[in-house]
Specification:
InterPro entries: DUF3014 (IPR021382). This is DUF3014 domain-containing protein. It holds the Pfam family DUF3014. Keywords: Membrane, Transmembrane, Transmembrane helix. It comes from Alkalisalibacterium limincola. The chain contains eleven helices and two strands, in the order ααααααααββααα. By secondary structure, the chain is mostly helical. The chain has one domain. Strands 1-2 form a two-stranded antiparallel sheet. A hairpin with a 2-residue loop joins β1 and β2.
Length: about 280
C-alpha cells in the first residue's frame, strides 16, 4: 500500500513528467505533472470527482491489454519481486535508462510503483496527497513577473524547456519496454488502490487523453497571492485538474511539445496492447 506517513515538507516545483521519464511511460506523466510547484491552488481541496472517471465496463476484460494480465499468476511473474519488495529491483531497472546518481537524487525510493500509480490516477483530479509524490522537489523557486497585476510570465516557461528536452531525448520505446515488463506490479498496485476489477493500462490511456484535451489559454496568465503562494486569478483555470493546471504553468510552447510526446507514448502503449490482444485470440 502507498505510505501513510506524510511527506516531508519541501519547496515546490513542477517539473514532474520529466524524470518520470525515467519512471517509465507512466512515471513520465506523474513526474512532470506532480512535483509541487510554488503555484499551488489557493486551498487544498478534496477531490471533486474525476474529469475522467475510471472506466466501468460490463465485464472486467481490459480495453488495452498489455504485458502479463494476471498479476496473481506466479508462473507468469516469477522473475519479478513482490510489490512490497520491488523498490530496489525497480530502481536497478530505471538505472538502465537514467544515471543512478541522478536517479537517486530525484526518486523517493520507497513505494515507487505505488506512488507512480496513485499519481497517474490522480492527474484528472483537483489534488494529489503529498504522501503520494513519487519524486523529490526540484531546486529553484517560482517567481512571478514583476508588476501589477501579477502574471505567470514567460520567464518561468524556460524553467521547463530544458527538462522537456531531457524527456524528449529518452526514447518512448525503452520506457514502454520497462513498463510492459513490470506491468503486473503496476496493475497490482492499481487494484490495491481500490479498483479490484480495473486495469491500470486502461487508466493510463484515459489519463493521457485527459492531458491531451487540456485547453490552451491565451496570453500571460494573471495570478493572485494566497496564504500558500500563488493561484490563478481566473477561477476556471484554478478549478481545473492538476494535470491541466500543470499544462497551463509550463506555457503553450512547452505544452505543445509535451502533448506531442504524450501522443507518441499513447501510440506505443495502445499498439502493443493491440498486438497482445491479437496474440491471445
Amino acid at each position: 500500500m502507498p505510505p501513510r506517513r506524510p511527506a516531508k515538507p519541501a519547496r515546490h516545483s513542477l517539473w514532474p513528467v520529466l524524470l518520470a521519464a525515467a519512471l517509465i511511460a507512466l512515471g513520465a506523466l506523474a513526474w512532470w505533472m506532480y512535483q509541487r510547484d510554488a503555484l499551488p491552488p489557493g486551498t487544498d481541496p478534496a477531490p471533486v470527482g474525476d474529469a475522467v472517471a475510471p472506466w466501468r465496463g460490463d465485464d472486467t476484460a481490459p480495453r488495452y491489454p498489455i504485458g502479463v494480465q494476471d498479476p496473481d499468476d506466479p508462473d507468469a511473474v516469477v522473475d519479478l519481486p513482490g510489490l512490497g519488495d520491488s523498490d530496489a529491483a525497480f530502481l536497478d531497472a530505471l538505472a538502465q535508462l537514467l544515471e543512478r546518481t541522478q536517479l537517486e537524487s530525484l526518486v523517493v525510493p520507497e513505494f515507487i510503483i505505488q506512488r507512480v500509480v496513485a499519481s497517474v490516477d490522480n492527474l484528472p483530479r483537483r489534488s494529489l496527497p503529498a504522501r503520494m509524490h513519487p519524486v523529490r522537489p526540484t531546486p529553484g523557486a517560482f517567481e512571478p513577473e514583476a508588476g501589477e497585476p501579477l502574471r505567470l510570465g514567460t520567464g518561468n516557461h524556460a524553467r521547463y524547456a530544458a527538462r522537456l528536452s531531457q524527456l524528449e531525448s529518452v526514447g518512448v520505446g525503452p520506457l514502454v519496454d520497462l513498463y510492459e515488463r513490470w506491468y503486473p506490479r503496476f496493475d497490482q498496485a492499481y487494484r490495491e488502490l481500490g479498483y479490484p476489477e480495473a486495469h491500470f493500462n486502461d487508466r493510463l490511456v484515459e489519463v493521457i487523453d485527459h492531458l491531451l484535451e487540456a485547453p490552451e489559454p491565451g496570453g500571460e496568465l494573471e495570478l493572485v497571492r494566497t496564504e500558500r503562494g500563488y493561484a490563478f486569478a481566473d477561477p476556471a483555470l484554478e478549478a481545473a485538474s492538476v494535470g491541466h493546471r500543470a499544462m497551463f504553468r509550463i506555457g503553450p510552447e512547452n505544452a505543445g511539445r509535451l502533448k506531442a510526446w504524450l501522443r507518441e507514448l499513447r501510440s506505443e502503449v495502445t499498439s502493443r496492447a493491440a498486438v497482445g490482444a491479437g496474440a491471445r485470440r
